[in-house]
Amino acid sequence: MTENQTSGPLRHLPILIILVVAAVGAFTLRDYLSFDALRDNREELIAFRDSHFVLTMAAFVAAYVVIVAFSLPGALVATLTGGFLFGTVAGSFLSVIGATIGATVIFLAARSGLGAYFSARMDSSKGAVRTIRQGIDENQWSMLFFIRLVPVVPFFLANLIPAFLSVPLHRFVISTFLGIIPGSLVYSSVGAGLGEVFARGEAPDLGVIFEPHILLPLLGLCALSLMPVIVKSVTGRTGL
Asked: Which of 9, 72, 111, 181 gives 20 to 30 Å between its CA and that of 15?
């Protein structure tokens, strides 16, 4: 067997491992990476943080990387935990670091395997598919920030789509890091207030991101990210 024949199947191995672990984790880890688990173990977590602060931060980032890289359930709970343990700003920063690293792992795994296949197919396509590909290529920064800022785009898909479109690594990393900051700050602030929520025996309002005073600014950022696309489209049609 030649080197090229061997590298073909092996190239898909990283993304296949991620998909298998994600499928297994969806059924086996759901109860361990949940709000109930955070509530039941909050005192132990606080005690460990107070005794080993730096180690707790490192362990939190590492856990977040694993959760995102393998698309395990619990990313939202992890963000809440970051806010609960480290406060809004520090918790959000650590969550963004972990999420960006984990997302980059998925991006590289997908790009090395399925991404190369889909990219080649889109390059050889004609008609609408080719037009869409060219439009995205011409406005990569805007589209990357848009899919990060829109609350309804699943994080896993937001990692795969750029890989299928041959987005450069540095653009993916920068847009991911900056694009997830607003949402991370919102949920970290919710996590920072979990002490009072636990004291009342209630559950946090995870739909807070859809409240008008939060959703409208996020939609404003989405519109701002698409402004270059809109301007380019208008000037192109009018010949300006």
From this structure: 181
Read off φ and ψ for residue 201, nearest 5 degrees: 70, 30
Domain count, the chain: 1
Find tokens 């636990």 and name the residue.
198
Residues 49, 55, 59: CA angle, nearest 5 degrees = 95
Amino acid identity at 240: L
pLDDT tens per residue across span 30-52? 777 788 888 889 999 999 999 99
How many angstroms separate the CA atoms of 82 and 38, rounded?
Answer: 11
| Residue ranges making up the domain that contains 143 | 12-238
Q: State the maximum Cα–Cα separation within the chain, in Å, rounded to a whole number.
A: 65
Residue 65 maps to a domain: yes
Cβ 182 vs Cβ 149: under 8 Å:
yes
Mean pLDDT rounded to a whole number for the chain: 81
Q: What is the rounded CA–CA span in Å between residue 172 and residue 166?
A: 10
